[in-house]
User: Fold this.
Amino acid sequence: MKILNLYAGIGGNRKFWTPNGNDHEITAIENNPEIAKIYQDFFPNDKMIVTDAHQYLLEHYKEYDFIWSSPPCPSHSDIRRCGTHRGQNEAIYPEMSLYQEIILLDNFAPKKTKWIVENVKPYYNPLINPSISLGRHYFWLNFYINFEKQKGVNHDKIKYNDTIYGFNLNEYKIEINKKRQILRNMVNPEIGLHILNRALEITEADKYGQSKLFES
Assistant:
């Protein structure tokens, strides 16, 4: 499967996507060179492109079988609003690229392409209702999926030197606050694998016109 992993971070969502080696052709997009370097260290066989993920999606969305997008979440998170109330942050506009990408993919993605957009639960009523809500995450996607309750990490208690989902950043010379933010932003790899496996099931069923077999 040809996969596009947008706003890749260090690859939490992607960690279990290739359990048998190079099962998929994965292109990762990350605009921060420091973070891109960490991702490449963990996943050397992925194609990493350091560029603007939002623009890359617009130019290349037709080329992939599976698209995962996790646009920046700080402007939507309740943490920012609470911090603003305590005088710790300035009020900022929510980043509307989140909804732009949902609308783009929902209306223009090829029929064969399975896509998912992930973000935190916002402090406001979402402008587009999510397909799935799980823990502190919302998911918008174009295929049916259900989740069993996942035991995840308490993100509020993550420290910069913790090992989270097998990732540890102690050897990297990055600001402490940035390390903590990187670890906090990761999606549970088991959730990432569950979503990809479901997309693969439906893709295979579509080849034989048997999608209804999986609708339960």
Q: What stands out?
A: The chain has one domain: 2-154+189-214. Residues 89 and 159 are 21 Å apart (CA to CA).
